[in-house]
């Protein structure tokens, strides 16, 4: 039996919730072991069968306790690999007053950045893309979708749309879309960003390595050139447990003083 199992069952023996349902006792023992550092981020949990055998409880009880902890973000399950203690996330604080790329944001924090490409291609535009980017039905739209990863932790899914006249070869983009746009004089200078809460669907949750249904941030951004022309339409999903968006608020003038 692994050291992790011994630590869990030591915590289980110390549980004071003897009158609570078994799955709650087991859930608390695992959570206590994690919080006390007896098992750390990335450590594998014993199998359901091993836990059930040693604790003398049913596998259904074990499964219920584990699923509760997965939903709570304490554990993560990886298909074909098992159940692990979730990594401790270092929250990223991002200002809403600066228009920067993900690559620039993370590099400024000294974090190693990489992307997993989900899509790069030219397509017929959707009605939303036609409306926002000012495209006709006969024009093409360039779509660039990436899973953004910092320090080996997936943080965001970005899905950007641009006119094919601006980005005729999406496959040629390197690590930064904005760097590629800057080379052609098409880097945006301002943007309007709308942020809303969202429960992550199964596909996005799988990419971000979080449980389906967990809270996330849906961000829609429309970016503009200095001329006022829309250059980019991006819809992103960010992990809710990793990001804080911060805005500085200022009094606009003496006439506003005293108002609440």
Automatic annotation (TrEMBL):
Pfam families: GntR (PF00392), UTRA (PF07702). CDD domains: WHTH_GntR. It comes from the Bacteria. The keyword DNA-binding applies. Keywords: DNA-binding, Transcription, Transcription regulation. One of its GO terms (biological process) is negative regulation of DNA-templated transcription. Residues 20-88 form the HTH gntR-type domain. Signal peptide: none annotated. InterPro entries: Bact_HTH_transcr_reg (IPR050679), Chorismate_lyase_/UTRA_dom_sf (IPR028978), Tscrpt_reg_HTH_GntR (IPR000524), UTRA (IPR011663), WH-like_DNA-bd_sf (IPR036388), WH_DNA-bd_sf (IPR036390). One of its GO terms (molecular function) is DNA-binding transcription factor activity. SUPFAM superfamilies: Chorismate lyase-like, Winged helix' DNA-binding domain. This is Transcriptional regulator.
